[in-house]
Amino acid sequence: MRLIRKVRSLTPLTILVAVAATLLTSGGAYATAKTLITGKQVKDSSLTGRDVKNGSLTNSDFKNGTLTAKQFKKGTLLQGTQGAGGAQGAAGEQGATGLTGATGLTGAAGLAGLTGLTGASGAQGEQGLPRHPRPQRRAGPARPEG
């Protein structure tokens, strides 16, 4: 009942101010909802870091594989543990034959070989011409010794 008595005592100016305040408040909420930008309205690559509030994006805001290490400052990503080693790869094809190398230096002389075995005796040759006796020297004057 008190409220009804207070309403009767309100002046038309007070009622006008209350209605105006209600309209302004609700109209602002309507305007905010109408001007809210959605992802469909944003062109690709048009937003920058300045347009996004720090800490407002989470993991669920990104698809897997869309962010790479190149897109982060050095030292901001933590190093993970090393993965298991991969399987042995297939053998490669044989390479082309290389060029012929230069001729090397002459080596040192080898050691002398062993003396060979004595050969078999040959067949006897034909009879030669008879031998002529040598002429004898004449005795001449004696030579001086000296």
Total strand count, please? 0
Using the CA coordinates, give the radius of gyration.
62 Å
Instruction: Spell the H/E element sequence.
Output: HH
Question: How much β-strand is present in the residues?
Answer: under 5%
Characterize the overall form: rod-shaped
Structural class: mainly alpha
Mean pLDDT reading: 80
Reported for the largest beta sheet, the result is: none
Q: Please, how many helices?
A: 2
- Overall helicity: 10-25%
Distance separating the two termini:
186 Å
Low-confidence stretches: none
Features:
single chain, 146 residues, mainly alpha, 2 helices, 21% helix, rod-shaped
Structure write-up:
- It is built from two helices and no strands.
- By secondary structure, the protein is mostly helical.
Topology, element by element:
Layout: H1 2-9, H2 12-34
Short description:
The chain has helices at residues 2-9, 12-34.
